[in-house]
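@channel sequence for tomorrow's demo:
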Amino acid sequence: MKKVLIRSMSGAVYIGLIVTAIYIGQWTNNTHVSFIVPTVLFGVMAAIGLFEYFRCIEKSGSNVNKPFGYMVGCLTYLAIVFTFTSYFNSSTVTSTAITSLLMVLLLSTPVGLFWQLFKHDRLPFATLALTLAGVLYVVLPFSLMKSFAFITEYSGLLMMTFILVWVNDTGAYLSGMALGRHKLWQRHSPGKTWEGCLGGLVLCIAAAIIVGPLFNIPYTWLQWAATGLMVSVVGTLGDLAESMLKRSAGMKDSGNIMPGHGGILDRFDSMLAIIPFQLIMSLLFLV
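structure tokens (generated this afternoon):
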């Protein structure tokens, strides 16, 4: 009973932080609050997530260049946040942010290799690759979540994406418990079944079609159905990918920051994979 209560409280805090990060600007009608609060919240989550990723890689027996990874992660986060924002209402700031982002992307590999010259590392290229992979896997999606949260037209889409992830997880769990017989991918996640995934998929698409229009996003019902399909399929694969990361490290959870739920990577595993796809789909559907 105590574990259930702790898990419920932890889940409530998690949902509260997400809702606050997305809507606090609209609640307060304050542009500064709208920019600063989600920037800090998603930035802290990205930092913790990157820490968990590095720990998993090290426990799996590989090396990462953590100081370089945190530096590139911080620069990438800030560059993307300022690129996708109209906070300063200045084309000069946006242009500078885009230039900074390109510089980070272009220079991260050669600078990382130069850094590795001074380290006694048996596999310097593998170390650099695993380090930069963490930035792409963790920091990039969190920076896009922050950007979605700040832009009013996209904040509802971000909230709906979280809802669809929760609906898909709930549907998969209930369907798996009731009908689960055939294992989906036992090597990475023994508990998942095809029946559970299909149940989550159907419920996710239905929720997207029924609930999606309430967020005033100019999607057709077919576009909402495609969104539900994408969230269910990509979210499940993202969950499996994070399980693969943990199993390679011999870990049950990526962390323990959220009692009963594990770490940041455990809680955001689906969203980390979904958000890049969601950005591309929204650009296709809304532009």
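heads up for whoever presents: The longest helix spans residues 31-59.
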